Amino acid sequence: MIERIVVATDGSKCAREAAEYAVSIASKYGAKIIAIYVVDELFVDKLVRDLGYDKEELKNSFGRAGLKYVGHVAESAKRNGVDVEELVTLGVPEKMIVSEAREQKADLIVMGMVGEGGEKPLLGSVTERVLNSAPCPVLVVKPSNSVEE
Question: Which helix (H) or strand (E) holds 36?
Answer without folding.
Answer: strand 32-40
